[in-house]
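Give me the fold.
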Amino acid sequence: MYGHEVGHIFHAFDEYSSSTSSNCTRSFNGRVNSNYQGAPCSGASACVMINNAFSGSGATRQWNLCSHTPYHLGWQGMVAPAAFVSPINDVVLTQNPVVLRFLRNTPPPNVSTYIKVFDRSNGAEVFCGSVPSSADSLALNVVNGQYRWSVGLGVPSDVSGYAGVITDSADFTVNAPLNADFNRSPAVLCAGGDVLFTDMSTGAPSLWTWAFPGGTPNAWTGQDPPAIIYSVPGVYNVTLTVGDGLTTDDRVWTGAVTVTGGQPIPMLEPFEGGVFPPAGWSLQGGIGGPGGQGGISWQTVVTSSCAQGISAWVDGYGFTGSFGYTVLRSPYFDLLNTVDPYLTFKHSYARESVAVTEFFYVQAHDCDFGYSQQLVSGSSFQAWTNDGSFVSGQPWVPIACDQWRTTLLAMNGATGHLAQFEFSMQTQGGQNFYLDDVQVFGGSRLNLRTLLEGPYDAQAQLMRDDLRLAGLVPLLEPFTAMGYAFKGEGGGETMAAPVLLVSGNDAIVDWVLVEIRDALVPATILTSRAALLQRDGDIVDLDGTSLVRVGVPAGNYHIAVRHRNHLGCMTASPVLVSPTMPLLDFSSTSTLAYGTDARKLSGGKELLWMGDVVWDRTLKYIGSTNDRDPILVRVGGLIPTNTALGYYPEDATLDGVVKYVGGSNDRDPILVNIGGSIPTATRVEQIP
């Protein structure tokens, strides 16, 4: 009860610390509560009691008071209030900055000092903050007006700020000449970042005009401009002109903003230059965990496997501490105008034992971490590149190409930034980790068209969208379930359901598979993607309209297009792939295809051969793994006139119905496409 009532005597509006709305700037009976100095100047303050609770019993029973309460009550010595020196008695000041002077009256060293300044005309808080314990003054720039200030002395509270005493208050008036001034943050930034400008003008300005050459926007009228974006590296001036209706003043800040740039892309770092880290790269190594172990860092080593030459590596096998952590940082790269940025790298690693776990991280961020993206966060259970077996008693050294893994990462969030990449390795003294061929580049867009024989309507020169109309086209790509091993970023593509609501020429017919292959070794798939096929033959991305994005830099490649029950085809020679690739039309006779009779000519259009039901790249009518028998099995296996409805590979015509006999059946086209008269003949897909 004593603590409860004393709280009211000291004008604590809400003395219970369980209340999150306590705000000791409120008034009581017309008097402003000056009992506290909160650390957050505009936030809730500490309270006298804790949840109106007590501890002990009988003679030892006592209220649970907040740790700062005794200072209010004087139990541990009341802190003497500070004394005003100047300005007092509403003196008129004619220059800025205003210097507030006071005496602390020699409080204990742990007592902090807080200054508050209010505008007397509207009660607004102009300033609230602490000053060093050795200080006896504070300089402030303020506009012309009438002010009241106070000085608070208190001790740190373990709950929310500072408890102590506050001087009553002192008044002063400012009537100074007009003076334009401002500040900015940050002063140095990466291209694509933004700067906040703060007006610090004094006098009585009523008009503010800003000029930001090189920024966006490049001009602003008003006291508080928005964040100004600087996209191009350089050093920029800023001008502020203020006026009060009679006079004006301006400040031209030469070199107010410095904008730094990044390295151009595409970039390939093979670590073969003989200097490590390479120019522009940096290391953070030798970091120890519990126990203080260190002595680990990224280095270089000769790796003869798979023509890698020299690689960056972390000697995890040779590390003897309990925990080590090292970071390899790239330079900043200019992705300001890169629409589809990618990062790719190779790595090799094997686990040492079930008891030892390493972690490998890849992070991207811009200069001020306004953009930050964790690209890879993998433990040794995900990072191994051998057959998964443990390698102990000897250091891991890759000896074959299949012991390296290539990771391709799309970095959509990095567009419009200068991006830096960090490769971090955390080890417990397990096994070595190798990194090589780091690349940063802008991806490409594929402008492709093809026609499938199965659903093609020669009269309309369009494909039918029977599967879509029947609601059979799956939202998830079908090729992973068929056993296809995607390369690069492909696999698991999913379209949104509204894409299938589009009708007409752009209606979706089915999924297709697109492969980007090496220009010199076309059997090598560099990356592959599942995409969508429209009725007019256009191949589009998952939104149903955009060109297909692929993770390869602009250059010449072979392109192959495949379907789940049609034979695919590939370009006869490498073609230019880029963000602005011209149309490559596989249905045109002028587009040459790899191999012999790779497509079926019908009515002036080149079509992909239908009937590869078992998806083994060969059309067969009889014999083992033929494409005819699965159709009969699908309809039941006993009654050939039966049909089966659904999204099945045996539906070669793509009408949603599997038929073995009768009109528009799925069996006869297979015999026709292998020649029509010799059932033992075959037709092989012309893709290496």
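The longest strand covers residues 145-157.
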